[in-house]
Task: inverse folding
């Protein structure tokens, strides 16, 4: 009875803190790890209005078409520097795009992150990579209950098993 009450009280106080207040995009750092392969023409976080930023990216790929892509997604949370938090996963992108539901966590991010890209397809890749005016909607990741704080989402892209591009997205959860 008492335990139930305490759990209830903790639930009532903690739950809104975990769930409410979405992410605010703050900054992005793009890096080509192999300039002969990939070149950033644009990588920009534009402030649209207070608390809302819009992300633009354009990557020129110099060796097309690409038939082997791996993507490594890892999340970091800041406390004395950025530390690995909750997940880091590498997926075979060409396979994944044919079976997205096979990786539920990546799929959840995919549904959110891919809404303004030209990358929502399987291999081969025979064009530049684009993100146009991506904004984070407050309700996008409600099913990912994270404590408030500063986060960094790091996405590494490999082709033919060599890392070529790194994107780090910095964001705050209120
Ligand atoms: C990623 O996970 C692997 C094991 O699953 C672990 O060895 C590695 O340290 C982790 N790295 C990061 C940056 O989280
Ligand atoms: C993903 O990349 C990180 C480096 O950012 C690395 O530490 C981690 O082990 C990689 N995860 C997997 C599953 O390969
Ligand atoms: C990606 O493509 C699939 C299949 O065409 C489509 O069902 C899905 O809605 C697309 N996702 C996004 C985020 O655009």
Result:
């Amino acid at each position: 009875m008492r335990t139930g009450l305490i759990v209830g009280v903790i639930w009532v106080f903690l739950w809104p803190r975990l769930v409410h207040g979405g992410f605010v995009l703050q900054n992005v750092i793009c890096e080509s790890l192999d300039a002969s392969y990939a070149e950033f023409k644009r990588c920009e976080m534009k402030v649209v209005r207070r608390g809302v930023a819009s992300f633009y990216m354009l990557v020129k790929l110099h060796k097309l078409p690409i038939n082997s892509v791996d993507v490594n997604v890892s999340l970091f949370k800041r406390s004395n520097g950025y530390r690995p938090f909750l997940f880091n996963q590498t997926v075979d992108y060409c396979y994944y795009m044919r079976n997205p539901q096979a990786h539920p966590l990546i799929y959840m991010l995919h549904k959110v992150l891919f809404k303004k890209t030209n990358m929502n397809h399987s291999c081969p890749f025979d064009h530049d990579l684009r993100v146009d005016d991506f904004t984070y909607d407050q309700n996008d990741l409600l099913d990912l209950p994270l404590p408030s704080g500063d986060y960094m989402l790091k996405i590494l892209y490999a082709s033919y098993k060599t890392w070529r591009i790194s994107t780090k997205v910095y964001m705050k959860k209120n």
